[in-house]
Task: inverse folding
């Protein structure tokens, strides 16, 4: 495998329960994950994955930004990182931009709403 370069900002946005995601590296068989630049909308839907593990890295958010993780609500700020294992119901609260690494590769059929 050789190095791959992607400009996430130029990828087409895809609607998701959180807002709009720009997903990279799904077409690279040797890479076991996908990387998403996601703009979170104000009314993100609570959801979970049965197989995916996600890592959220917060790039931009307001001072009142939070994450709901099962029954806990935690404040977040730029520079923080959260690992979300399969089965954890989660949603972002507030407008924000996050970088998400999903492993294994993102599968839209593994996105379950409550």
Result:
């Amino acid at each position: 495998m050789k190095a791959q370069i992607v400009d996430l900002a130029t990828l087409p946005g895809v609607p998701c329960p959180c807002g709009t995601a720009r997903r990279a590296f799904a077409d690279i068989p040797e890479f076991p994950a996908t990387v998403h630049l996601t703009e979170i909308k104000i009314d993100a839907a609570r959801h979970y994955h049965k197989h995916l593990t996600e890592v959220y890295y917060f790039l931009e958010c307001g001072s009142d930004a939070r994450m709901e993780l099962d029954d806990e609500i935690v404040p977040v700020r730029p520079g923080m990182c959260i690992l979300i294992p399969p089965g954890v119901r989660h949603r972002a609260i507030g407008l924000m931009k996050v970088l998400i690494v999903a492993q294994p590769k993102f599968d839209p059929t593994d996105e379950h709403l409550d």
